[in-house]
Amino acid sequence: MREKKPGGRDSMTLSEKDFFATEGMTAHEKSSPIYSLLSGQRVGQIPIDEHNEIDREERAVQQRILSILQWGLLFLVALCTQLPCVPVQQPLVLFIALTCCALIFTGVHFIRPKAQGARWLLELDTWAVLVLTTVAVWQTGFLSSPFLPLYFVAIMLTGVVLDAKAAYQQTAAVTLCWLLLAAADSKAFSGSLEALRIDTEYLVVPLIRLILLWMLAWTVSQFALENEITKEKIRQLSRTDQLTGLWNMKMLLIFMQREYQRTLTRSGKFSVLMIDADSLKAVNDALGHHAGTMLIVSISETMRSELREEDMLARFGGDEFIAFLPETDCQDAFNVAERLRRKIATTPMIYEGHAVEITVSCGIACFPVHGEDLIEVMKMADRALYRSKDAGKNQCTVFDPSTDRERFRFG
């Protein structure tokens, strides 16, 4: 199946064409990182929002745990209200509340299984627990109800499964419910000045509990904030190369896939640069592997300073780099590559008092000139890179189909 591209061109979809095919590949191409890295994969199959998917799976697990707790809460309230020591003011009201909550829990978790892991579903669950707790407290003794501590459970759950903001929102709602319950309780406000001392004593314990509730909300929110900071650090580590701080290959492919789809809708263009250091082995042999590591860092910092903010640069192994230049044609891409090459060549690395000369080779391919899809353009850029290597290094080469065919014929 083919899809129509803007401008009347036909192209294979990403899901139809493997990133590489081994037919006609030379030995150095078979050992190229761009081929070995994606062996057996398709660019179109790489998940774009992989961290969102992880978050969704985490919320789905939390929701299952929350569901068990909800049903346990329903059972606990229903069981305790049958005890003679727990009087219920209006059994019908409590029964209706329990029935409605049971229907909500059933509908949310079984009728709409596709929504599992959605944030709004967790919010609905936590608010349902809060409402059920309020009705149970209201019907079983107001501020002296045995179910009053369930508010602590509700706040803790909200902070754990959602975030600090949601925990504070629910704590404010609980405070309002607390005040309304106190106002509705005849034991709390008898309207008699003589009973003021008794009323104060009656309210001391609920007031202490309310203060403890806010302390719990603050504690849970701090844990939630620290958890988010930790997860963001993990996300950042999974997205970047730890040595250079550049994007790793997976994130580059995700970015390229998005930009490619956007380019198709706008009939636009883009270019890919494959960049490889020429002297890493020589530096490793002469000065040691630490010097080679510093060489890689030096190259990455120079290139990063020369590219635009909308360009994306990544390291995908050893001394190989790849740059994706949106809305850039072949001539502009060549100019960028030449600027990078000259800047690197004229910026020697100082290592232990020695000036170490650095050069790079670059291969350039452009869409739609050198390929009708992202996969083909990346392959052509990789071939152009080895053209630069074969021609003596320290140069930039734009992919040329005629010379590439000649190379395959006689290489």
Describe this structure in a few short sentences:
With about 400 residues, this protein is an alpha+beta fold.
Describe the 3D structure:
It is a single chain. With about 400 residues, this protein is of the alpha+beta class. It has 2 domains: about 1-45 and about 245-410, Alpha-Beta Plaits; about 50-240, no CATH class. About 60% of the residues lie in helices and about 10% in strands. It contains 14 helices and 9 strands. It has helices at about 25-30, 35, 50-80, 90-110, 120-140, 150-160, 165-185, 195-240, 250-265, 280-285, 290-305, 330-345, 375-390, 400-410, and strands spanning about 1-5, 10, 270-275, 310-315, 320-325, 350, 355, 360-365, 395-400. A 5-stranded mixed beta sheet has the order 4-5-3-8-9, sandwiched between helices. Strands 1-2 form a two-stranded antiparallel ribbon. A two-stranded antiparallel sheet has the order 6-7. β1 and β2 (about 10) form a beta hairpin. α7 packs antiparallel against α8 (about 195-240). The radius of gyration is 32 Å and the shape is elongated. The relative contact order is 0.09. Mean pLDDT is about 75; it is low at about 1-50 and about 405-410.
